[in-house]
TrEMBL record:
Domain of life: Eukaryota
Lineage of the species this protein comes from: Eukaryota, Sar, Alveolata, Dinophyceae, Suessiales
Annotated protein name in UniProt: NFACT RNA-binding domain-containing protein
Domain NFACT RNA-binding, chain residue ranges per copy: 129-220
Amino acid sequence: MTEVKVPDYSNLGDDGLPLCVEVELDPKKDFKQNAKLCFKQASKITKAIEKCAPLLKAQEEELKVWKATLAKVEGPQRDFDAEQVKQLYEELCAQRFIRRPKPKVPSEQVQQPEENKWRRKYGKDVDRFLSPNGLEVLAGRSASANERVSFELTLKDALWFHTANGIPGSHVTIRAAASEVTDEDLEFAAALAAWHSKARNKMWVPVMYCKGHQLRKPARRRIGQVQVSGNYCQLDVRPTLPTDS
């Protein structure tokens, strides 16, 4: 059986006799198991009614109060002044019936500092500089940042810099085509590479540079390691950091 009709003694008809109610049964269970399941469900319903009834009554009382308040606000007499309306608004917000509008942020605060913009663009461990002719120059400050500078941020036709003769240092690139780079920009980026190296305290540091398409990832390498294919150029520069950095 999947259902059975039983008398509901809590619901009497006009003749005083209990009306019938259909109870769903689990055909995989026997009579005792179904009866036990029904009593369990009935117990849950009873407990829910006991918990919800006081809450429902309280909500109904609160609803009466709010309806009376609304009638005063919208009524022809307009009994509420501005201060009372403000208090009503605060109470509605406090009880989360309405949401406060988000405060408007001044336009000067919306515009975030320039540094935050390029930090999000290039990464927190990548330093950004401007060459004498206004070209972006990027330098990594960690192995993962060097990896990003070399293989994600260096353009194929752009120049890439690193200290020569096995001197450990940051990977540096000019974010522009090599044809747009002047000798002044070239020395600027090379001096940055020398500054971001273990030879920072030397008077002169050898720095090599090549184009982005010459960079390769060597086999069995550590993060940040780069191999240069083909010929490259080299120059000696003084390690220098821009005074406005």
